């Protein structure tokens, strides 16, 4: 990986804001002509600065009114059990993010659901039945103050 210059950072900031920005507009925004801009974009993709592109969907439009953060605890810290837990959650679409954390819990999950009833059923029938899980503590989001706006650029 090479050192990012001012233009590389400007390209990354612009596409983080709008991943569908055409190269012509991107080039204009960062002060380059199209060909060098396209080359830089391709290089940034190739060097792994850009993991991929995706759309940010509306929870409201999809009627996912509950966002919860669930702290998951294990009583036994066995690598095989943790690996199995991590593999199984990959296929659960309601879990939108999962972090292995330090502290009193082992994992922090972000979960979405239509309503509290659906979330409760998910906790009872899915989350608590996963390998290794002995306790789940939920925190409900009352209001999203800041949505994932991308990573800070040095």
What does this structure look like?
The protein is α+β, with helices and mostly antiparallel strands and 154 residues long. It has two domains: 6-46, Orthogonal Bundle (Arc Repressor Mutant, subunit A), CATH 1.10.10; 66-140, Alpha-Beta Plaits, CATH 3.30.70. The protein has five helices and four strands. The chain has a four-stranded antiparallel β-sheet with strand order 2-3-1-4. Helix 2 (23-30) crosses helix 3 (34-46). The longest helix has 13 residues, at 34-46. The model has no long low-confidence stretch (mean pLDDT 96).
What is the overall number of helices? 5
CATH topology of the largest domain: Alpha-Beta Plaits
CATH architecture heading of the largest domain = 2-Layer Sandwich
Note the beta-strand portion: 15-25%
> Compute the gyration radius: what is it?
20 Å
Structural class: alpha+beta
Q: Uncertain runs with pLDDT below 50, 5 residues or more?
A: none
First-last Cα distance: 15 Å
CATH class of the largest domain: Alpha Beta
> Shape, please?
elongated
- Domain unit count: 2
For this structure, what is the CATH homologous superfamily of the largest domain?
Lrp/AsnC effector binding domain/regulation of amino acid metabolism (RAM) domain
Which bin fits the share of residues in helices?
Answer: 25-40%
Strand order of the largest sheet: 2-3-1-4
Largest sheet: 4 strands, antiparallel
Q: What is the residue-averaged pLDDT? A: 96
Protein name: Transcriptional regulator, AsnC family
GO molecular function: sequence-specific DNA binding
Domain HTH asnC-type: 4-67
Pfam families: AsnC_trans_reg, HTH_24
